[in-house]
Amino acid sequence: xxxxxxxNDFIIKNQADFExxxxxxSRLLGDISVASKIVSRDVRKAxxxxxxxxxxGEVNVQGEDQQKLDVVADEQFIAAFKNGGEVCGIGSEExxxxxxxxxxxxxNASYVVLFDPLDGSxxxxxxxxxxxxxxxxxxxxxxxxxxxxxxxxxxxxxxIAAGYVLYGSSTMLVYxxxxxxxxxxxxxxxxxxxxxxxxxxMPEKGRLYAMNExxxxxxxxxxxxxxxxxxxxxxxYGSPYSGRYIGSLVADFHRNMIKGGxxxxxxxxxxxxxxxxxxxxxxxxxFIAEQAGGLATTGRQRILEIKPTELHERASLFIGSxxxxxxxxxxxx
Length: 333
Ligand code: AFP
Description:
Elements: H1 7-16, H2 24-44, E1 55-59, E2 65-67, H3 68-84, E3 87-92, E4 99-100, H4 104-107, E5 111-119, E6 130-138, H5 149-152, E7 161-167, E8 171-176, E9 182-187, E10 192-197, E11 208-210, H6 221-230, E12 242-243, H7 249-259, E13 262-265, E14 276-277, H8 278-291, E15 295-297, E16 314-315, E17 317-320, H9 322-329
Parallel strand pairs: 3-5, 11-12, 11-13
Antiparallel strand pairs: 1-2, 3-4, 5-6, 6-7, 7-8, 8-9, 9-10, 13-17, 14-16, 15-17
Bound molecules: 1,6-di-O-phosphono-alpha-D-fructofuranose.
């Protein structure tokens, strides 16, 4: 019988590869793992417990209805980061401004985290897969002080780690520290994330495309032409691709990571800069995609090279198998 490698084993082994490692980063990953398990538990009983299912009755900074579970997940991750002491501040989809932690331990911490606590939250009430997305940076402000906005407005190329948790038919945590991508599946019987998908690679091409095609008539003409290409028998596959759109970016991305495919959320007349959030949706998944051999662009520019100017900045996103993203980009002027 082969030995099970838990996420903790894996983190500790990788820490040993860095001579000067202090363990601070490893502990941060550990905090994410624990918070994810708690959110996973809450997601699993969402249909049973009244205080978890349904709308919170508030509208978040993006003008979207907050679901109760959005708030539960947000609070859970913030508590993990605040109590962990490895993070001087966080930026989250659910909070208008970043949060700078005030205690001395946090002020002396090295990292900031940006995250979407519950991506795809319109899927919660209908029992469809949702996820958490996170991105970790070294702070640029001096240690010993409070986090400042500049700590969060770094280009995606500066990420030192990124990942996502998918609450699907099983719960998976997938992350990269810039040295490949590894996936861990939560074994509920032992309460541990176990290495299930070592060294993940995104297939060079596939035959799945994901787009909210309800928007097709408010997209630029190149998008219509590209979707027509996907649906035609004249494409590189020789028969129409399959359309798959879950509406949870993490779930759509994860499927394409494994099977090969493309996800596009272009700018539209209603969302001229795109709909997805650069800092805690596009950047972390772009980092993972590139580490797995895939590609992530706005359609015209590499996502990771965008210099952000605001916390909740939006971007259009073309992400997935490299040759498919390149093909889609070739349809834009
Ligand atoms: P939330 O994080 O607010 O739930 O947003 C979900 C999301 O950003 C992404 O996961 C989906 O792919 C996308 O929205 C779905 O948007 P449409 O409903 O416009 O297709």
